[in-house]
Amino acid sequence: MTERSPSHVSASGSRPGFLPSGGKKFSRATCLYAYEELFTPQSAGLEFLSCGLHSLRPEGRSPRWAHPREETLLFNAAEASVSIQVSGRKLEMAHYDSLYVPRGQEYFLSAKGEASLYEFRAPAENDHPSHLSKWQEISASEKRIRRMKGKDVYIMFDVSEKADRLVAGYTFFQAHQRGWPPHNHTDQEEVYLFIEGRGAMEVYYSEEEKTFVTSVEAGDAIAIPRLAFHPPFSQDQEMAFIWCIAGARYWVGDRSEQFMRGEGQSVTT
């Protein structure tokens, strides 16, 4: 009787679709894609916001992502462009571009160079179209820029774009500046995610109870609950951060002339 090889082994002794050795080693040092959850509402003491980081090495690809009950904003904080498939479209995100992904929409990322995308999420009850905000266009439109003493604010995802809770943009501080006047929100929570330079930040409910004062640098995220004042400070170099709001959809300067003029001891919106 002729002895037969198992049906899943070829005549050469290898298994179709498998490496001849039967294995391959992977490690964090050779990983082409990684996702880190920086905080959730539970860990940050917030009601809505979650924040994470997608990291891609050259030729890296992410798995397919979808958040059935959350809307998402992605910000490209690296100089390498990133390709994103979302809502049946392939989009290219250049440096500083942002993308709104509706709840439940599947997306995945790929990059030819080193890339970092920050992700902000909040619960959503409604469906909205995806929206790509191009930095090249936003930075050339004075309608999207709020120029203040010592800093400029670029509104990347504004109330004119459809969403349930999210509004977001960039703030660029000159060196040796302070966020003045300090402000807080009655109906918004927020995160500042620092992407360039270094400085410091305070978060407090009253001057008497001010206990949270910390240094910040690129990669640090500060979660800001409702009603907490949150002034940042730049030091000996320029500083930039992404700000993302979840709650009522407005930016403080568009509601407060006092804030835009830099007057008073504090501003509440």
Q: In whole angstroms, how far apart are the ends?
A: 87 Å
Q: Kindly state the mean pLDDT as a whole number?
A: 92
- Order of neighbouring strands in the sheet with most strands: 1-2-9-4-7-10
- CATH fold-level name of the largest domain: Jelly Rolls
CATH class of the largest domain: Mainly Beta
Task: Supply the CATH architecture of the largest domain.
Answer: Sandwich
Number of domains: 2
Helix content: under 10%
Task: Let me know the largest β-sheet.
Answer: 6 strands, antiparallel
Number of H/I helices: 3
Name the CATH superfamily assignment of the largest domain: Jelly Rolls
Report strand %. 35-45%
Radius of gyration, taken over Cα atoms and rounded to an integer in Å: 23 Å
Question: Assembly type of the shown chains?
Answer: single chain
Backbone shape? globular
The tally of strands reads: 21
Reading the helices and strands in chain order gives EHEEEEEEEEEHEEEEEEEEEEHE
- Segments where pLDDT lies below 50 for 5+ residues? 1-12
Would you tell me the structural class of the helices and strands?
mainly beta
